[in-house]
Design goal:
CATH architecture: 4-Layer Sandwich
Oligomer: single chain
Structural class: alpha/beta
Shape: globular
Number of strands: 18
Order of helices and strands: EEEEEEHEHEHHEEEEEHEHEEEE
Number of helices: 6
Strand content: 25-35%
Radius of gyration: 18 Å
Length: about 270
């Protein structure tokens, strides 16, 4: 990783870089959860690959971050969706020239979800019928040095991405591993498909890599029993106003452990 916090490596003589465009946050409040996911830009040779597209509330941030890298939405060649929850895929419609890669189990379910599975972006899944969508599964190669690893549990067809990096593998985990606490816990903090699958997916990811780009946290490396963050901010600014004569107050609470939310709505 260079001084700018950009992971760089060579794959078969092709220079590759991995940048975080928008950092994920795994915040919960007494009024509900905050869905800000990690979106990453992987460049291999002349291929621009976007991993997840984030919630619509961050659409402007995503476009701005791409432009800071010298790219427009039409410059993205491939979009990889780890899963079809709204906070990870709502901006997919911006990338009309890209191939969109998604797991077949995930897209099939998203187009006909269970009635009360409201986290699935069913409208986006339906809209994607008008895009260049290809389904990918375990072991499929995206480009040289970049492959798919199936990581179900959080959702039925969740998948992650493995990228070769100078003798080691970097794992872009999505919400199969939303934050570093998933390592010690052995589970993501939200499970909507199957607890056993989610546990096995965490084990599978830990066996495959020790460098992780999680879905709702900063990139980190696991070194023995230690977790060392590689880059990014852990700060978020919350703004209010007194235009109407009053303002909400904010209390920030840090817990030693996070309670896992198990809500099996996908079966």
């Amino acid at each position: 990783m260079d001084a700018d916090g950009i992971t760089k490596w060579k794959v078969k003589n092709k220079m590759s870089t991995l940048d975080v465009l928008t950092y994920g946050f795994g915040l919960a409040t007494d009024q509900g959860s905050v869905g800000y996911s990690t979106n990453a830009l992987l460049r291999v040779g002349n291929q621009n690959i976007l991993i997840d597209t984030g919630p619509s509330s961050r659409r402007g941030f995503l476009v701005k971050s791409l432009r800071e890298k010298g790219l427009e939405t039409d410059d993205i060649d491939i979009v990889i969706l780890t899963h079809m929850h709204w906070d990870h895929c709502q901006n997919t419609d911006l990338f009309t020239k890209a191939r969109v890669l998604v797991n077949p189990t995930e897209i099939d379910y998203a187009r006909a979800p269970n009635k009360w599975d409201l986290a699935v972006a069913a409208g986006m899944a339906d809209m994607m019928r008008n895009m260049k969508v290809d389904t990918v599964s375990e072991g499929d190669k995206v480009v040289d040095g970049v492959t798919i690893i199936e990581t179900p549990g959080h959702t039925k067809g969740h998948m992650s991405i493995l990228a070769d990096s100078e003798g080691e593998k970097v794992l872009l985990a999505g919400e199969a591993m939303p934050e570093s606490g998933s390592i010690a816990r052995g589970l993501p903090y939200n499970v909507f498909w199957d607890v056993s699958d989610a546990q096995e997916s965490v084990e599978k990811m830990v066996a495959a890599s020790n460098v992780f780009y999680p879905g709702h946290d900063r990139p980190f490396r696991v070194e023995g029993d230690e977790i060392n963050y590689l880059e990014g901010t852990g700060a978020i600014q919350v703004m209010g106003s007194t235009d109407g004569g009053g303002s909400a107050s904010l209390t920030f609470t840090v817990s030693a452990k996070r309670t896992v939310n198990v809500d099996i709505v996908q079966k």
